[in-house]
Amino acid sequence: MNNQRRNVLKSGSGAALLGMLAAAGIINPGMALADWNKAAFDAKSMADTLKALGVAGTTDSKDVQVTGPDIAENGAVVPVGVSSTLPNVSMVAILIEKNPNALSATFNLPEGTEANVQTRVKMGQTSNVYALVKSDGKFFMATKEIKVTLGGCGG
Amino acid sequence: MGNPMKIRAANKDGVTEVKALISHEMETGQRKDANGAIVPAWFITELVAKHGDKVVLAAEFGSSVSKNPYLAFKFKGGAKGEKVVVSWKDNKGDSRTDEAVIG
Question: Across residues A124-146, what is the average pLDDT?
């Protein structure tokens, strides 16, 4: 199924064909939407990552919360959560400033899914962790510093 | 095919909380083995959770998500006995789908 979808995307047959395939149930529309954003995940710096995500400008917001430990003993497994009370949140991303690639994960939240996501990430060293939230088409950020005593990216 | 995911879904006051623990190596591609050779990157890139036909979460992961990724989120709706289906795909093209019954 996935190979088929790749071919469709590569051949550039356009949205109409994709729509037909989706309607026919051949491809899963959700998976088709979530085409992995290589540029954003390969970006090294925060600025490049935001650019690759198509974020023009962000506002710091108290309505976005980053949760996590103040000190992580093991950088390989750092629990991080993002929640927000902003309306109509459609996307949440977790960025770690000092990791080799800043972007850790993005979550697209369809209507009905709450802006409250928890996961675990790897951190190479003590760094600011940013939460990026898209609400009503605008981008908001919040940050929290997490100290790492043992890095999770080394060999 | 990887190992099965552990998924729990529980409905409380009309909101379903989903917790998933995925079995995956999540190799960054930056680590070196004992011989100094770089261990190739191998990580989940896309994850989709569905309730019935409706997508309730579409996530994209980078290599900095921890080994055996954990994910928790909540969506409105869902009832006891209904199913939540989670699928992932990794950068090698491997994929897996598992489901849980909302309790």
Answer: 95
